[in-house]
Amino acid sequence: MRFQIERRVEPSSFMRFAAPVYATFSTLVVGSIMFALLGHNPADTLFAFFITPLMTINGISEWLLKASPLILIGCGLAIGFRANVWNIGAEGQLVIGAVCASGVGLFYPDPESALLLPLMVIAGMAGGMAWAAIPAFLRARMNTNEILVTLMMTYIATLLLSLLVHGPWRDPDGYNYPQTALLPDAALFELFDPMYRLNTSIFITIVAVFAMWFFTERSFFGYKMSVGGAAPLAARYAGFKQSGSIWMGLLISGGVAGIAGMAEAAGPLGQLSAQISPGYGFAAIIVAFIGRLHAVGIVLGGLLLSLLYLGGEAVQLSLGLPSALTSIFQGMLLFFLLASDFLIFYRFTPFPKPIKSGVT
Amino acid sequence: MDLFIAIFTGTIIAATPLIFAALGELVVEKSGVLNLGIEGMMLVGAAVGVWVSYAGLPMPLAIMSAAAAGALASLLFGVLALTFLTNQYAAGLSLAIFGTGVSAFIGKGFGSAPLDALIPLEIPFLTEIPVIGPLFFNYDPLVYFSFIMFGLISWFLYKTKAGLVVRTIGESPESSHAIGYPVIKIRYLAVMFGGAMAGLGGAYLSLAYTPLWVENMTAGKGWISLALVVFAAWRPARVLFGAWLFGSMTIFQLQGQALGISLPSEVLSSLPYIATIVVLVIISRNWQFLALNFPTSLAKPFRPAE
Fold it and tell me: Which residues of chain A fall below pLDDT 50?
């Protein structure tokens, strides 16, 4: 039987939710084939990749710890993406947030002050916002493509971080490692349990998810931004200014990325180092897409991508597979998701039988 | 004089991967498709080139494999963007992420064993001329090849009928389809050509410029190539000038000491990125100038009517 592709009369809302499931499933299938080609039993490897890491309390703690920045940044990015504002440089904003927050943590005159941690959150957010404000200004005023500018700013941010931790901020007692001194205790988020690394910064993420839901689903400005993204001409006709969306989309996503960077330095790392993030800013782009730019979806997407990080580390340790598998899985997931999206607007139908002559 | 020669040749060499990648992307964009995945395709090309070279196969084969790998990688984008009508920004981004992962995967076991690098060509008589020889006739074959490709692409786009068809499709896929041109097929070919060129650019980095495999060795050159196409306002000759401009920026890293600059290396390394932003700002302000050669249907999904 032959099939033809037919445009659906209306986009399928079922497929809108089924597509991420299809994508995950396809990724697992292709992943199994890949494992088999590498000479590993696919079932065992998938188990080691996706299940074993979650079988201990420490595993769960690490899972949530890594999901937190992904979800936080994903929420911010989704607000921009809804308005067709493409902030691809969350990684750079994360780095600058971490740098600014660590600067406060290291040099604030009273290292035991209860104000220290809140000040660092503000510094991290301000840093991320400032870094995102440059592409926002250039896009809103100078019509400069924000994709390229945010990316270039990411490379510059990474170099700035490297300059600081190799130079003026390097810990004099740190055996020449590119990292700063440890942050004082008052500059760190409290742990839930001293045995595990999960810390209270996760509450920031939870608040952000609710705020994001409210902003996109219930606020007028969020509505204006979505209209601007989905139907630019309608938005213009209604008098919604595009520059407002650009500023809002970039500043929000930059701010939360900055907080995420701050939470890395003031959380699991406890200091500023050259390797502040394993690519959370880029992975969060996938989180936002997998989550359909919706708050609930982003939470699920963040948990999935976090599991990919854990799984990559786990099979590297247990089976000696390269950790690059994580980014391959990330890329594949996004590929299959985008391909599955086709099914929202199109469907496969059996090819119609040729009509007998005479019937016109 | 020696310093001048070092700066001049250094600029030409640093510009070569950008010329390959940006000229390829120019053809893709002229056909109305925006592939943001250059960074990923360059990395795949770079890794595959080294892989084939380590396997002991001759250099031309390594270079061709890199180009083929780039074209193959571009197909992933092509299927998403052209067949599944995905948002081209998202499709390109996923190729960039995927390509980075795949290249890291391929290059995992390479270590830093010495590599048979592509060496400068000795041209009888010409290379020996003082000053002129080292300035113009002391490059590896791929540098000359990049100039040949520049000539071929300029000729193809503006002097042949096929080139006109590509540009027409970039302007109005609907009309081209109505006239009877296979829009999707031609766009696929353009995307694959762009992929092959990005693969060549990557191979140049890993086989001639560095020459070594380092994870993420493109360091944004794919993205800079994208900016170059905008900077060039979609004209091949301006791609060349733009690439030299960016090439000259990287010279400060290599020749900073000789030039008497005592800034930290990070500051010098950030120059190409800062220059990219500055150049984009200057060029984007003048929308009318850009619009002259802008492919009207760029990044808009097209599906022929049934």
Answer: 359-360
Q: What is the mean pLDDT of chain B?
A: 88
Task: Decide if B277 and A152 are in contact by the 8 Å CB cutoff.
Answer: yes
In a domain, A23, yes or no: no
The gap between the terminal CA atoms of chain B, to the nearest Å, is 65
**Residues in chain B closer than 8 A to A332 (CB atoms):** 98
Q: Which of B54, B35, B36, B42 is nearest to B102 (CA)?
A: B42
Total tally of structural domains belonging to chain A:
1
Boundaries of domain holding A150: 71-212+237-277
Q: Do B94 and A327 count as a contact with CB atoms less than 8 A apart?
A: no
A260: in domain: yes
Q: Can you list the domains of chain B with their CATH numbers?
A: 2-291 (1.10.3470)
What is the interface pTM, i.e. ipTM, of the complex? 0.88
Find out whether A216 and A77 touch, Cβ atoms under 8 Å: no
Q: What confidence tens digit (pLDDT) does each residue in A278-335 have?
A: 889 999 998 998 888 999 999 999 999 999 999 988 888 888 888 788 888 888 888 8
CA angle A296/A297/A300 to nearest 5° reads: 95
Q: How far is A259 from chain B (nearest CA, A)?
A: 24
Contact A147 B91 (CB under 8 A): no
In a domain, A359, yes or no: no
Q: Chain-centre distance of CA B305, in angstroms?
A: 34
Cβ contacts of B98 on chain A, cutoff 8 Å: 327-328, 330-332, 334-335
B119 vs B142: CA distance, rounded Å: 10
Cβ burial of B288 (10 Å; 0-12, 13-18, 19+) is: exposed
SS (H, E, C) B51-63: HHHHCCCCHHHHH
Question: What DSSP line would sit under B172-240, residue for residue?
Answer: -HHHHHHHT--HHHHHHHHHHHHHHHHHHHHHHIIIIIS-S--TTTTTTHHHHHHHHHHHTTT-HHHHH
Type of residue at B229: V
End-to-end CA distance of chain A: 24
Calpha distance B212→B209 (Å, rounded): 8
Q: Given pLDDT bands bounded at 50, 70 and 90, which one contains residue B66?
A: very high
Q: Is residue A152 part of a domain?
A: yes
